[in-house]
Amino acid sequence: MAPRSLLERLLAPCLLFGLVLGLAACGATAHRLPADVAWVAPTEYRIGPGDVLEIAVWNDPAVSRKVPVRPDGLISLPLVDDVPAAGLTPMELREALAVRLRRFLPDPAVSVLVQEVHSTKFSVMGEVEAPGRFELICPTTLLDAIAMAKGFTVWASSAELFLIRPEAGRAKRYRIERDTLVDDASNQNILLRPGDIVMVP
Q: pTM (2 decimals)?
């Protein structure tokens, strides 16, 4: 990777400082992660916009097809037109489709398979080698996120980083000391959730 220009090195802290101020204005006060909280992965997957689903109706290839979940959370199928899918588990969507299809088909056997996951994303920004948005397709910790972003740059803070997490419609900002991430007893190397932002000053 090419060395940063002097202008980039001067502007980067300013941009990060501006982001921190903006989050503070939105009520994202810095908090410490509680060490005694158990952070666990979701027990079931819920469909979201951007996911690609395989809908199969037994003995009815005209209805069976691969469909994307639109940004409005709906999918489109013959006979039933637009059907809400975002926020449902595959089993819940299967039941909803079966109910709608009973108006046209006797006892339809429906299956719903998630072929591609694109709705669960997190971001890593700031002083990492490859900042960007990443798909959260398996349990991913803070250290995993840093590794996916190719690690810290030489200008990264050696003291702290921040996790910005949407909670109850607002952004909540957690301060995390870097040296606690590798300490199992601190429980700071938490699992990320969809919508999380890891910010490295």
A: 0.71
* Domains of the chain with CATH codes: 15-42+120-200 (3.10.560.10), 52-116 (3.30.1950.10)
* CA 32 centroid distance within chain: 21
- 166-175 pLDDT per residue, tens: 888 888 899 9
- C-alpha 85, offset from chain centre: 17
Q: Which residues contact 67 (CB under 8 A, 6 or more apart)?
A: 52, 53, 55, 75, 76, 77
Q: Compute how many other C-beta atoms are within 10 angstroms of the C-beta atom of residue 114.
A: 17
- As a whole number of angstroms, the distance between CA 183 and CA 63 comes to 53
74 and 84 Cβ atoms separated by less than 8 Å:
yes
Which amino acid appears at position 85 of this protein? A
Distance of CA 173 to the CA centre of its chain: 16
Tokens at 151, concatenated? 């690690």
Q: Report the distance separating Cα 60 and Cα 24, nearest Å.
A: 54
Residue 112 has pLDDT above 60, yes or no: yes
pLDDT attached to residue 21 = 42
169: Cα within 13 Å, side-chain hemisphere: 0
